[in-house]
Amino acid sequence: MLQAQQLSALLVTDLVNVRYLTGFTGSNAALLVWAEPGRAPVFSTDGRYVEQAAEQVPDLVAEISRDALAPLLTAAENCAAANSAAVDVGPVGFEATQLSVAVHADIRRRAPGLALQATTGLVEGLRIVKDEHEVGLLRRACAIADEALAILLEREGIRPGRTERQVARDLEWLMYEGGADGIGFETIVAAGANSAVPHHRPTSAVLAEGDLVKLDFGAQYGGYHSDMTRTFTLGSCAQWQRDTYDLVASAQQAGLDAVVPGALAADVDAAARSVIAAAGVGELFAHGLGHGVGLQIHEAPGIGSSATGTLPCGAAVTVEPGVYHARRGGVRIEDTVIVREGGPEILTVTTKELLVL
Amino acid sequence: MLQAQQLSALLVTDLVNVRYLTGFTGSNAALLVWAEPGRAPVFSTDGRYVEQAAEQVPDLVAEISRDALAPLLTAAENCAAANSAAVDVGPVGFEATQLSVAVHADIRRRAPGLALQATTGLVEGLRIVKDEHEVGLLRRACAIADEALAILLEREGIRPGRTERQVARDLEWLMYEGGADGIGFETIVAAGANSAVPHHRPTSAVLAEGDLVKLDFGAQYGGYHSDMTRTFTLGSCAQWQRDTYDLVASAQQAGLDAVVPGALAADVDAAARSVIAAAGVGELFAHGLGHGVGLQIHEAPGIGSSATGTLPCGAAVTVEPGVYHARRGGVRIEDTVIVREGGPEILTVTTKELLVL
Description:
The structure is a homodimer. By secondary structure, chain A is of the alpha+beta class. Chain A has nine helices and 21 strands. The first copy, chain A, has helices at residues 15-22, 50-56, 69-82, 101-110, 122-128, 132-154, 164-177, 239-258, 265-278, and strands at residues 9-12, 29-34, 42-45, 62-64, 92-95, 116-119, 182-183, 188-191, 212-217, 219-221, 224-225, 228-233, 263-264, 290-292, 299-303, 310-311, 316-319, 322-325, 329-332, 335-338, 345-346. Chain A starts with 8 loop residues before the first strand and ends in an 11-residue tail after the last strand. The relative contact order of chain A is 0.12. The A-B interface holds A 25-27, 47-49, 51-52, 94, 96-105, 118, 120, 165, 169, 173, 176, 182, 186, 196-201, 286-287, 326 and B 25-27, 47-52, 94, 96-105, 118, 120, 165, 169, 173, 176, 182, 186, 196-199, 201, 286-287, 326.
């Protein structure tokens, strides 16, 4: 890939990309990958991570430096100097969406002889299609979330009188008990009017009879994230709530049906969005249909009306339409799925029937 | 401050800085602050956050745009055009440590007439000195962590046979129960040889008699973070463990004694480090002494051997020396403190006597 871009090397400074390529999970590291086949990458981290680097990245000798970039710049400059007579030595790529203007200026100052070239999404592109090991980790992360919700429902943990925060903490606790390494993202529990806020943070608001309750949560397992939303009603179900639910469920199914290898992401979004628009409430679905999920909770490919990509076989994505009636309540239904020939493999298997709790 | 830098405005894209200046906690926003006194800033977020913006930032009308930068660029360009005849209109500052090379290039392309100027640490500089409202939030975050540890100790939750993960989850659960909005950072529980790894992630390793057990954890409250480390031994205490503990405790006290308004951060680091170096194990303390803490768990000012700043009165910082014997065990002792005339106000009040549990 680097050769196709006529780069001699790529400076990987995005820590998620460093993790993807090396397995290292520390908070300070950088990696220089050469275009030359078989040439060992330069991997660098600081003194806090000597033991962790040896354990997680046994196939590379870590350069230890408080300034993780320093050993990489030295290596890149040495390489450029050694090859200065050659005509086919390309610039060193850097990750333009991650590297800050300040660090870029600093590199220019410290390594003035180095030819730098902005790149975008090279490693992120590799990360879109998950191999079966990664799918296994995603499947486990999703199973942990499904199981946590099943236990919470069985214990009648979602009921009038409890607070949004209590429900959120229960879900998180159950995911940890179920083997999660961490919480996938800030758990959303939104009751009543709060359910109309797409990204609501749990508060001390008390769940009440007649409320819509929206849960959007996930687990982290082996670095991979699950993402699922379910919406319930408490005690009873008003007609507008059921209508909204059925509409979102239809839109979600239409979105899932459109998830086939090679589909345009914008078309998948449109498949779900058109169902909601046809019901005359298109403006109440004000966010994209979904996003890729993996080592990050939001990653490529995006699925929205202005998305430009396609969904390759093996990509992991969410499908999550919602309809939000301001100050009344909202419904969102979301699955994490793998793009497969013959239709998506749905990893989040909690029922999507409307449950009245 | 902007006038002193001869800037006409500052484009604030770091979300923590946006929060500091506006109170907004959503995941997509930007702010344009004018140098002109009294001129209303331009605040932008996307459609997911219409209600949240109205609630959290009642004094500004939010511009709603999926691309939060767009309304700011339009406003800045309109301003530049209106003032094109004036001689005293400065460039628009941007946050060079936050803005990526890619977004910077995108701004240049979309607003080619706009003069841009890299800035570093402007809002971060304002954030160093905490006002009493902020100190109150820090105090509460620290109290939640102290209280969680007190309850865990009372319940004998740190004992042989339990795993690092169980202890970590207990601490986190107790912090939530105590009113935390979130966990301050990834809780560290490191037992036995793992305690020699400065930033160890809790595993299923089982605590055993004779272990050093190091806990580094904190709570989030109102956006502010607490940070505390305590180290215990289980069942007994070998002489090398006690010696190591006493050394680190002396170094920590020396560091605290050096925390006075106006102190050079490097001198504070040296005050603690020299104690450890004098004992002949300076190389076993391989990280900086501390860091500022507030809306972020790590923020300005850094306290390390190469730090260049001073500690102003009202700054919130950690003081956390450690000595780590590889493959045997390590000790770290850390407090969160406020720089005050007459000596630091220590917000984390858990005992620093060596407890044998």
